[in-house]
Amino acid sequence: MKRKPLLAGNWKMHTTVIEACHLAAEIGRCSAGIDDRDVLLAPPFTVLSEVAHVLKDSKIMIASQNVCWEDSGAFTGEISPTMIKSAGGTAAIIGHSERRQIFHEDNRMINKRVQGALKFGLVPILCIGETLEEREEERTFIVLTGQIRDGLAGVSAGDMKKTIVAYEPVWAIGTGKTASKEQAQEVHAFVRNLLAEMYEKDIADSVRILYGGSVNVDNVDGLMAQADIDGALVGGAALKAESFCRIINFT
Ligand code: PGA
């Protein structure tokens, strides 16, 4: 089954209001008229509405970099699904390895976030990935299975169709070390098989699985040529319009 490619830029903790508006405008210009692939930007919370405003006439989707499971209340420092939607967002990155590693978010909390996003109508982009130590100990598939099974606990088949998965090996994020296209494909195929076991083959075949971890202008074409790689979640190379635009236009 052919899935529409999705090129996503995760701006992490970068960009002031002015920088974000400039970058969004440039990306809007270079992706105008592109129909055969989707583009998504995940700017910091503080500029979600500005970026959405700059891109209001484009098809670019806006995502937050995290989301709370509750829609309002005493959750200092969190952001609710409705807040994200009211700022123009339609999706949320959840369980990014920086959230897992630096802020100690575990599969249970990540699952609550996934469920919250779905309940309030945001597309969850569930990030999974093994550390270098886990890979070296040959625990990659065990770790990923736990992240998928626990992260998606309670997610119905109907909701799974709306969900996006991003495989981001921790050792490849921001390090310049990409997984080889063969390594990435092997994991993507594994994840798709696991989803087929948990749901049904048709659902597994329809879920977009993005690769992330040092995606750049030189490796994007090879990665995107893999059968089970449906897109990229890009950090560093998404902060410059020139490189992100080249990534969007992968061949
Ligand atoms: P990177 O980040 O492209 O800078 O490695 C990817 C990510 O963390 O989403």
Summarize the structure.
By secondary structure, the protein is an alpha/beta fold. It has 12 helices and 8 strands.
Textual characterization of the structure:
The protein is an alpha/beta fold. It has a single domain, classed as Aldolase class I (TIM Barrel). Helices cover 42% and strands 14% of the residues. It has twelve helices and eight strands. The protein has helices at residues 17-31, 48-54, 81-86, 97-102, 107-119, 132-136, 140-151, 157-160, 181-198, 201-206, 220-224, 241-248; strands at 6-10, 38-42, 61-64, 91-94, 123-128, 164-167, 209-212, 231-234. α3 (81-86) links the parallel β3 and β4. α1 (17-31) packs parallel to α12. Bound molecules: 2-phosphoglycolic acid. The site of 2-phosphoglycolic acid (PGA) has 13 residues, from β8.
Averaged pLDDT: 97
How are strands sequenced across the largest beta sheet? 1-2-3-4-5-6-7-8
Task: Assign the CATH class.
Answer: Alpha Beta
Structural class label:
alpha/beta
Bound compounds: 2-phosphoglycolic acid
Alpha carbon gyration radius:
17 Å
Order of helices and strands: EHEHEHEHHEHHHEHHEHEH
Distance between the termini: 19 Å
Number of strands: 8
Can you name the CATH architecture?
Answer: Alpha-Beta Barrel
Helix fraction, binned, reads 40-55%
Total domain count: 1
Contiguous runs where pLDDT drops below 50 for at least 5 residues: none
- Our estimate of the beta-strand percent is 5-15%
